[in-house]
């Protein structure tokens, strides 16, 4: 009996000859599995990235809207306005003194008589108060110009015309007889001297500067940041 040394070719189920390329090796199977996993992972990553990008964009838009709304609210809150109560509270100050000047004047007079001259020397003391009367401000003296409070005060004036303290007036030298009319004339002379000495442009200017400073401080304390005070404009 002759041995059959030929080898039969394996058949596939469909009857065709066995082809190794139709059956991947274990390594190829592993690579294919890894490739599928990586592709799926990339798809998931891209999906998550896209969703994240959309979420970030939405957050940015909401943040911007929130910031704009907050900024608008802050601007509206910063716009302070004048109330009638605030205006009245300042007007109720009435006479507002911005400069006080103490003065003394030496006044003498001589009366020539048949038997000789009579002489009277007196010292007068007085205090001149410079300021404004807030009851005399014009309508609309305190207004808003955009974000600035504008205050317009009347001119500086002498608040009290009876500024000589007669209780402190004393005679420095007196010789002869003097009647009430003589003393009144000396009083008027002392009055005029005090007024001329104290109601000077420099003193009025100082009172104006004090008025601007004091009223500005009051308005700042009420919450107004920008303030302008004018004095002497009717």
Straight-line distance between termini: 147 Å
Low-confidence segments, ≥5 residues, pLDDT <50? 1-16, 58-63, 70-78
Largest sheet: 4 strands, antiparallel
> What general outline do the C-alpha atoms trace?
rod-shaped
Tally of helical runs: 4
Sketch the topology as an H/E string, one letter per element.
HHEEEEEEHHE
What is the radius of gyration?
A: 51 Å
E-strand count: 7
> What do the pLDDT scores average to?
77
Strand content: 25-35%
Number of domain units = 2
Structural class per helix/strand content? alpha+beta
Helical residue percent?
40-55%
Helices and strands, with pairings:
Layout: H1 26-78, H2 84-91, E1 95-113, E2 116-133, E3 142-145, E4 148-153, E5 157-158, E6 170-175, H3 180-198, H4 201-221, E7 226-231
Parallel strand pairs: 4-7
Antiparallel strand pairs: 1-2, 2-5, 2-6, 3-4
């Amino acid at each position: 009996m002759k041995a059959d040394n030929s080898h039969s070719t394996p058949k596939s189920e469909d009857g065709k000859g066995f082809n190794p390329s139709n059956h991947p090796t274990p390594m190829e199977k592993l690579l294919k599995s890894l490739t599928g996993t990586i592709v799926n992972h990339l798809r998931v990553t891209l999906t998550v990235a896209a969703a994240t990008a959309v979420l970030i964009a939405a957050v940015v838009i909401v943040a911007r809207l929130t910031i704009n709304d907050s900024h608008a609210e802050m601007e509206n809150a910063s716009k302070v306005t004048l109330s009638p109560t605030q205006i009245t509270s300042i007007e109720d100050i009435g006479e507002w003194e911005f400069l006080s000047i103490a003065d003394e004047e030496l006044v003498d007079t001589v009366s020539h008589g048949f038997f000789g001259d009579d002489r009277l020397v007196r010292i007068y003391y007085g205090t001149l108060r410079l300021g404004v009367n807030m009851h005399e401000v014009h309508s609309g003296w305190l207004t808003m110009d955009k974000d600035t409070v504008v205050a317009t005060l009347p001119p500086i004036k002498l608040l009290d015309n009876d500024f000589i303290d007669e209780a402190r007036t004393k005679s420095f030298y007196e010789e002869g007889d003097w009647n009430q009319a003589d003393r009144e004339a000396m009083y008027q002379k002392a009055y005029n001297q005090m007024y001329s000495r104290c109601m000077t442009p420099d003193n009025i200017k100082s009172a104006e500067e004090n008025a601007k400073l004091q009223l500005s401080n009051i308005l700042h304390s009420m919450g107004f940041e920008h303030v302008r005070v004018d004095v002497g404009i009717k």
